[in-house]
Amino acid sequence: MIVSLQDIDIISSAKRSQAKVWSIANQKGGVGKTTTTVNLATALAACKKKVLIIDLDPQGNASTGLGVEADARQKSIYQVMIEGIEITSAIRPTDVPRMSVISSGVELSGAELELVNLPEREFKLVNAIGPLLDKFDYILIDCPPALGLLTLNALVASDAVLVPLQTEFYALEGLSHLLRTIDRVKRGLNRRLVIQGVVLTMYDRRNNLCEMVAADVRAFLGEKVFKTVIPRNVRVSEAPSHGKPVLLYDVACAGSQAYIKLAGEILRNEQISLSEVAVA
From CA 107, how far away is CA 80, in angstroms rounded? Predict the structure, then answer.
């Protein structure tokens, strides 16, 4: 059965004064961070949430996947963090209603070295995004595949971390390392940081290893693992070459359907949490 975006239009009646800021992070490359960032943001925007993507990966894949050409990135997250321009001037609209992006530029590849000698280097992003917190419902930060200063800035600026995890042999080893990093950041730099959840990506039900890894991750993290899994899907891989989220490229494909369901699961979980707070 195809799930329509209207099926998960379950908007909370509670008004928020500040955006939820989430880092999409995993130090391993090729696990679906950018794909998850772009398509989850698209699904949330389709559910009438106002969403901003911050492309913090020097590769700039999120920007490319949203159709932002290289020559249109003169004002990027690099200029915000290193040169100190106003972050609002770097926001660009996308083809998705209610969704905007702050692009990554080629200069960001040198930002790790430049940040080393700057004062309060871990707080550049959190200090910059303040003016945006009352303008969006969600700010999703696409992190680079490394636990360097760029990812550290993202974690310090975030309320929570969403971890895309490929269902492969080394998944738990990498996850353990990331969880230790998140714990250190929480203890030393950002006490509010929590794990929003782990989403299993590139999942193939025909592969016994995928089933075993999924079972191990769920045993390790329990309810922190989303019920929705993201399958391997050719249309998901094709969409970025057309400068579109897969939900715009082919909403009926298995990948699009999975991200729609993931957005629905997130919104339902938040409604439940709001209800619990109200009861308490």
Answer: 12
pLDDT tens for 155-198 read 999 999 999 998 887 777 778 888 999 999 999 999 999 999 99
The distance from CA 237 to its chain's CA centroid, rounded to whole angstroms, is 17
* Residue carrying structure tokens 């016994």: 208
* Residue in the block written with tokens 């699904």: 43
Instruction: Compute the radius of gyration of the chain from its Cα atoms.
Output: 18
Length of the chain (residues): 280
Cβ atoms of residues 134 and 15 within 8 Å: no
- In the block, tokens 């303008």 appear at 135
pTM of the model: 0.90
Name the H helices within 48-170. 61-65, 77-78, 111-116, 124-128, 149-157
- 243 Rama sector, left if φ>0, alpha if ψ -120 to 50, beta otherwise: left
Rounded to 5 degrees, φ, ψ at 118 are -90, 145
Gap between the terminal Cα atoms of the chain: 37
Nearest to 162 by CA among 25, 18, 21: 25
CA 151 to chain centre: 12
